[in-house]
Structure formats: structure tokens, C-alpha cells
Amino acid sequence: MSRRTSNLSSGSDQGTGGVTGDSSQEKQKKLLQADTGHFNMVRTLHLADLITELNGFCGFMSVLSSMRYLTNPEDNAPLWAALIFMPFGLFFDFMDGRVARWRKKSSLMGQELDSLADLISFGVAPASVAFAIGIRSPVDHLLLSFFVLCGLTRLARFNVTVAVLPKDKTGKSTHFEGTPIPTSLSIASLMAYWVSQGWTHENLPFGLAAQDTIFEFHPVALLFVLWGCLMP
Question: What segment(s) does the record annotate as region Disordered (predicted)?
Fold first, then answer.
């Protein structure tokens, strides 16, 4: 997670870059608070924000690809597309911070956009792929929901605490509390391996526990629970 607003908000850390960021933010405040005007919100966006939007685009395309796979499970192409879109989302998540620091421009909406895009690309998208490949009992639903909610909570807490976290000379936070949500791509990579081996649906690793009861679930779903516990 690039967290562009926190990286550029401090004048002492960024030199003149911080001044530029403060001036830019004041302009954005006036535009966002204006009662009239054409495309007020669009005019507040920077290039880095548009790159963040591409992160969210990749995440949503991954979700749609998972849904498309469900309409025809015989065709694995949409499933592979769902998995491939997630690393592209990570690329844009990395690039938006680089562009913001290069241009020395911060955005009031940048931090919020970053978190929302990350939730889609690295929270909802992996859970959607898991559902598509067969992790879909009622208990599985609760376990996957727990994972997504942990990601949501982790991102919300970061947004609240980022201003007080220690910064390095470039203005970047020196540490994070909890595992960053993009690390969920590790689970996506594992699911990609399962798909390549044909380990989906009835062939999922470790099978189905408590079968034919209301508590039946896929043990591999516990991996999402574990990852969720590492995030907040």
C-alpha cells in the first residue's frame, strides 16, 4: 500500500514537496467544498489518483471474471483472468505512490482511494476466486466474509493512525501494524497452483470437513481466516 497522502503531507520530511502538497490540498478543499462548478471531484484528482483507480478497476474485473467463470465452469479462461488481474492491481498500487512522490503532489482523496481499491483487489477479489473454485458452503461464506472484514478493518485503522506513524527521510511510514492486505496475493498464487493442477471443486486439497451437516466446510478456507487474523 503506497499511502500517498501520508508520504507527502509533512513539509519537514519532504522539503519543498511538502509545501507543494499543502498548497495542492488547499486547492482541493476549495474545489470539493464548492456548491457549484463543473466536474469538481474530477478536477481534484491527480495522475497518481487515476493510477489508483486502475488498481480498483483490476480488482473489479477480477470479481467479474470469477462470476463469468461460474456461468461456464468448463472454461477456465475467465478463472485465469480473475487470478491475473490481481497482480496487475498490485502493480498499479505500487506505481501510484511512485508517481505521487515523483510529481510531489498529494491528494486528499488519494489515501481513501488507495484503501478502497486495495479492499477490492486484495480482499474481495481473492474471496471471489475462492468461491468460484468451490469454497462455497454456508460456513465457507462466513470464513471468507471474516477475511474480507479483517482487510476492511485493517485499512480503516491504517487510515486513522497513518498521520502519527514514524516516517523516514522520504516521508514514508517506517513500519506498519499488521500484515498489509496486498500480501493476500500469496493465497491467490496458491489458488493459481490449485487451478493448474485441477484441484478445484470436489478436488480441493483436504476435501470437505463435517460433510452432510450444517457445519460442513472446506479446511482450506481456514487459510483465509489465518491471513485475516494477521492483518488487523
Answer: 1-27
